[in-house]
Amino acid sequence: MEKKSPHILNASSNLLGFSLIIITSLKITKMSEHTHLDEFAGLASILFAFSSFFSFLAIRTEKNKLETQYETIADYLFLIALFCIVLAVIIVTVKIID
Fold it and tell me: What residue segments make up the domains of the chain, in order of their start?
């Protein structure tokens, strides 16, 4: 089976930066007071950070059982964080349409 950890690490670290840009731009524009967008982006940032951490651990460990566990944790955290980003995009889209 192909290792997913390097892919998870790459994608989650990139999306962590994207989430932090969302939070920064919301604070600059003072839009964070009117939506729950910053909460979703903040939660996504935390989850992407932990996903990066666990995927890094999966890459560095030499025990196969631990590697599989870390990779699974990183995968699920990445999926939940991705869902948070999708919710944030939906909120932005609704705000733009209104």
Answer: 5-97
Cβ-based neighbour number of residue 5 at 10 Å: 21
Closest CA to 28 of 15, 17, 38, 39: 38
Tell me the whole-structure pTM to 2 decimals: 0.87
Answer whether residue 54 shows pLDDT above 90.
yes
The residue with tokens 């089976």 is 1
Tens-digit pLDDT profile for residues 58-84: 999 999 999 999 999 999 999 999 999
Question: Running DSSP on this structure, what letter comes out for residue 4?
Answer: -
Radius of gyration of the chain (CA): 15
CA distance 56 to 50: 10
